[in-house]
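Hi everyone,

Forwarding the result from last night's run.
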Amino acid sequence: MPATNQYDARLIYSASESDANMLWATRFFAPDPFIFIEKRGKRYLVMSDLEIDRAKSQASVDTVLAYSAFVKRLQQEGTAFPGAAQVLAAVFRDLKIKKVEVPSTFPVGLADQLRKMKIPVEARSDPFWPDRELKTKEEVRFINEALRAAESGMEAGIDAVRRSRIRRDGYLDLDGTRLTSEILKRIINTTIMARGYVPSHTIVASGNQCVDPHNQGSGPIRANTSIIMDIFPRSQATGYFGDITRTVVRGRASERLKHAYRCVEDGQKIGFRRIRHGANAFDIHQEILNYFGSEGFPTGLAGGRMQGFFHGTGHGLGLDIHEAPGINMRNKNPLRAGHVVTVEPGLYYQGLGGVRLEDVVFVTKTGCRNLVHIPKILEV
């Protein structure tokens, strides 16, 4: 017997400002939850009076319905204060929808209310929109634009480190003030904001702070130690992210740190060489992990914490900063032409600090194309 869909329509109820699935489906930014329905290829929005006119002119859908019209009808039928579940039931009656599929992030309370009204709700595991993984030419352009903003912030940050003076006490001084992670983040973030992008939790970590890869960094920065800058701005216009990481040292890096940096560079090159359509994500990550071990950089618990290379080699990039596919120990699926993924191996050890380098590549049938243009320099 041929397989058939078990649902009549797909339903999302969320705010597109914070839900990439909704934003991808509608190309419409709104801060409050609204209703999206797809039935047989036709897309509907049910919008408040506040947003309906903007949605009609901006949203990439076929029909925009007025939420207030359904509220008024329900009130005339005797429901004094209709909620989202009652409005949805009325919309479903009009569109002849009996059962819906929703993303795994759909509000549980709303799903329960619909089920009590005898409307089956079936949650679909990720990805809700499988086509989100493969980027269109327009999406690649949006990501490229976000990367240019990230590069401008990175260049401003590296320039500030380069201009800093090494004080007698071993700390860095910029324009007469002790250079801190906070000052460096402010320089990076204001540069990004001037281009119409929103920085979010920019990382500027130095020394042992680097051993925790998502430590945002704080306090004064010393000379002759690693500084990891990880920048991932989001476009206010399109919602797409850029993501770039560089590691620099003001002064002289130790021989061990130089060795770690060369290995991370070489680990990236393994990724660049191996990434292509059909390549196994797990195998790429494992090869880099094995290479680091062969160079004297093991991964595991040491001193009560993980050290070495203990995060993924990369992740998908788009309307979410972290999206499918992952290049890591958990994903044995093949990469596909059209994926946009980061390549960001790293090494982290207490006492040494850390090194991470991150570029973004577009996967093709025969290889990959690096979308990042700025160079990699350790000592500045």
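The mean pLDDT is 97.

Cheers,
N.
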